[in-house]
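A quick aside before the break. I want you to see a complete sequence-to-structure record at least once, exactly as it would be stored in a machine-readable document. Don't worry about memorizing anything.
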Amino acid sequence: MLKEHPLLVFFPLAFLLSWYPYVLGKTHLVKTSGGMNPLGVMVAAIVAAAVCYGGQGVKQLLGRYFRWRIGWSNYVIALLLPASLVSLSALLNLLFGASRPTGAQLALWPEMLPRFIFIFLFIGLGEETAGAASHCRSFKSDFLHWRLASLSAWSGQRGTFH
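That is the input. The structure line, written in tokens, reads:
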């Protein structure tokens, strides 16, 4: 049954693994930031793929990270364009009379690289796995089946009420 309906595994797990820090934070039983767990969806997708399709499902899911359909130049642009725009904005800001950053402010700049890596790995890849899962045929067919069943049930109920 699970192989035919992987969303029955994925959605409850994604919800549970993503929102448990928030729930624990509200109960005050555990000291936590109370925010979402950005890796919850990724872990749920991997677990659902493993439970429903075994090692081959996990391999297919994670293989989507390395299937690139665009050239390297697009990735270079995606990484350098935001940094270039921020640098240009800072330069224009200085040209229009803003004060230069203090030594204390400049001392914090090296912290940006670890923050970028954290955001990329934990938030970016966590969300990307959910997107990759949604592109798997098995997840899509289950979603379409559920959607069509919901639509036909709605239209059937509508016909009985009107």
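Two observations worth writing down. Helices lie at 7-27, 40-63, 72-95, 103-107, 112-135, 137-161. The first helix runs from residue 7 to 27. We'll return to this after the break.
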